[in-house]
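Progress report, Aim 2. The chain analyzed during this reporting quarter is listed below.
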Amino acid sequence: MPEEIDRALAQVVALTGIAKTTLVRQALAAHLGAMGVIRPEVAEALRPVPTRGRGLATNRKKENR
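Predicted structure tokens for the chain:
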């Protein structure tokens, strides 16, 4: 994933507390729904998942280095 997108996702995670995987899953489902590949209600049914552990995954990666 391009670094700029990864940083933007990390900002959204920090602001919302929603896990990065959930944000990506929702965006992908919305895009596929808009393309008509899946039903729009599939994208709408995805529920946000709060982040777990100590802060952002990117922060944990830095701590483990």
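DSSP finds four helices and no strands in the chain. The radius of gyration is 14 Å. These observations will guide the mutagenesis work planned for the next reporting period.
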